[in-house]
Design goal:
- The chain has 207 residues and is an alpha/beta fold.
- It is 40% helix and 17% strand.
- Strands 1-2-4-3-5-6 form a six-stranded mixed beta sheet, sandwiched between helices.
- It is globular.
- The termini are far apart.
């Protein structure tokens, strides 16, 4: 009887372990593993679509001059970013963090907004996204070190008088929050996430 009970218990334990393992692998592949999927045509932040409220911003983004920067992470991933320099910036730089499964190019509407406010724009592709290397999505936690490295690179590029702001949407908002919890250099002056839009539109008098 005891052997039978033990056998049943071990069988149940094995089945439970197998189910948990399968579920873990499934959800990892669905949510964490880098798939670099294309944006849905019904929600296209890159290409102009009919009745597009962001048409002017996207067309501007397609034509504006930009450089491609490369930075190597702590774990030796090649990370890419677009740099749009504003001749009127005077050392002000905005780092814009895109959302889950997105790319830097999807930040076109926000890039135009910050450019019009007088900022030079840095648009990183998060690890595992766009042109950056990486096999998994970190949801803002390992990315915080990447953005600290981007901040240091901007200070090295533009000098100690650089003034940097951070802005992110969706997963990029989580990234900005995680970065904000680190010891930041004095050059970082502010950080915003999507929920703060109404507040900073009011403060910056944006119509």
């Amino acid at each position: 009887m005891k052997k039978k009970t033990l056998k049943i218990a071990l069988t149940a334990l094995g089945a439970t372990s197998a189910t948990l393992l399968y579920s873990s692998i499934y959800f990892y592949k669905q949510a964490v593993k880098n798939k670099k999927t294309n944006t849905s045509p019904d929600y296209d932040l890159i290409n102009v679509v009919p009745n597009d409220p962001w048409e002017a911003e996207k067309l501007w983004f397609q034509k504006v001059d930009r450089d491609v920067l490369t930075l190597y992470s702590q774990d030796d991933l090649a990370l890419k970013a677009l740099l749009i320099e504003n001749p009127e910036a005077g050392g002000k730089v905005a780092i814009l963090a895109h959302g889950y499964s997105g790319t830097s190019k999807e930040m076109a509407p926000f890039a135009k907004l910050f450019y019009d406010l007088g900022f030079t724009i840095l648009l990183p592709d998060a690890r595992g996204h766009g042109d950056s290397e990486g096999d998994y999505i970190g949801f803002g936690w390992p990315e915080r070190h990447d953005y600290l490295a981007w901040i240091d690179s901007l200070i090295n590029r533009y000098g100690q008088d650089t003034e940097i702001v951070l802005f992110g949407i969706s997963m990029g908002g989580a990234t900005v929050l995680n970065v904000s919890g680190e010891a930041l250099p004095d050059q970082v002056k502010a950080s915003w996430k999507t929920a703060d839009i109404a507040l900073w539109k009011k403060n910056w008098a944006i119509n």
